[in-house]
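# step 3/5: fold
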Amino acid sequence: MFKQLKKITSALRAPTIAEREQSYLNGSMDRIDLEYRQRQIDRGLFRHGY
């Protein structure tokens, strides 16, 4: 019973900022795209509070 509740709650939680950033970086196609995405993250792309 508790295992099922744990699965449900983990499925419903929103991804953390770090997880979103990692997913964004993993989507890069080449080194140049990766560097561009890293600069976007450094500028605060995912750090906005809204």
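# step 4/5: annotate
Residues 15-50 form one domain.
# step 5/5: archive (pending)
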